[in-house]
Amino acid sequence: MSTENLDISRRKLLGTVGAAGATGLALGAAGGAAAYAAGSRPDGTALASVGSTAVPFRGTHQAGILQPLQARGHLVAFDLAPGAGRKEAAALMRRWSAVAERLMAGEPAGPGDTGVALDAGPSSLTVTFGFGASFFDRTGLVARRPAELDPLPAFSSDRLDAGRSNGDLWVQIGADDALVAFHALRAVQKEAGAAARVRWQMNGFNRSPGATAQPMTARNLMGQVDGSRNPKPSEPDFQERIFVAAGGDQPWMTGGSYAVVRRIRMLLDDWEKLPLERQERVIGRRKADGAPLTGGGETSELDLDRTGPDGKPVVPADAHARISAPEQNGGAAMLRRPFSFHDGIGADGTPDAGLLFIAWQADPRRGFVPVQRKLDRGDALSPFIRHEASGLFAVPGGPGAGEYVGQRLLEA
Q: What does pTM read for this prediction?
């Protein structure tokens, strides 16, 4: 099929699916399925609801932050090629933005599209772009590097692989179809051309939409409900916690956010040896439904003052839920939107599996850093996890009409 016919076929397939497809869905880690807009195939048959949903590329914030967890994800960091600078970076961001907008609408990537995603709709595809601290050195924009990009402190649980950490540029890809996500990954890599080369790449997954009887918070590979205390858009201070407000030192970051990315290996063989009661005390929540050990349902508040018949706190002093609670950290909070990963079985027979932790906040110095410092000093979960890679990226606000991502930085 020619590129022209391919383009026409994909446009017909979308039908009336468009920007409204993702609005009104539950936030981030709540995940799950919702009533998606209906699309149609070129032959007139209905496109399955999961495939028909399109997320807008343009808006106040970039896509991939507020949308529900997606079934498939790819994280990839690039370094600018030797000799490439601000001009080449601007051209690259222009190309990347153009291809991301087409793919998120369910259209072909452009001439020479491989057709990998030909039979699918947009499948909630999101492509999100960020800049690492080193990007500003490479492009001569040091004066515009935000203080929020100062290096993260070292933590005792870190076993960081420098080759899988940081990077000049970061791209987050998510979709509810594996081929749609892969198609976007290949398109982004190809569009990098001679301007940038891959530094590292990681693959992740979550539960597929519709796999549960009703939308619910996702579970991680330890079997725990993960994300119960995520900030919610209905909270009055949500915007100021997660997104950069206007009037800051770096106006190009208005509407943007900072992403802390950590590859966290879970030592599953050790974890799974613990009896259920011990696992629940390590976390501070019931495994069955994510409810606090102090009772209620998943969304019930932790009663950190309650004690048991033995006089000890019902939620142990070193429980993960207690130590990470905002009220224990001066209100520090972040929006966690992770993917799980499994990269095979190691030579010692243990699974190379865990969490691709992605946390969004307006300032990591007030979000991730104070919480992780406290966890580092005595979290009961620490013996069962290992931080193996790390990155911090400035993710600018969503592009306006006619803009590419990062234009307000690169062309100011």
A: 0.89
Rg (CA), the chain: 21
| Distance in angstroms (rounded) separating the CA atoms of residues 250 and 315 | 41
pLDDT at 7 over 80: no
Q: What proportions of the chain, in percent to the nearest 5, are helix, strand and coil? A: 30, 20, 50
DSSP 8-state secondary structure symbol assigned to residue 120 = S
Give the separation between CA 95 and CA 188, rounded to whole angstroms: 9
Residues 6+ apart with CB under 8 A from 66: 27, 28, 233
User: In this structure, are residues 67 and 124 in contact, taking their beta carbons and an 8 Å threshold?
Assistant: yes
Active site residue 7: no
Between the CA of residue 389 and those of 81, 154, 260, 338, 353, what are the distances in Å?
22, 12, 11, 14, 13
The one-letter amino acid code at 271 reads W
User: pLDDT tens digits for 213-243?
Assistant: 888 899 999 999 999 889 999 999 999 999 9
Question: Of these residues, 79, 176, 226, 363, which one is catalytic?
Answer: 226
Give the list of residues 6+ apart from residue 261 with CB closer than 8 angstroms, or none.
75, 170, 356, 357, 358, 389, 390, 391, 392, 393
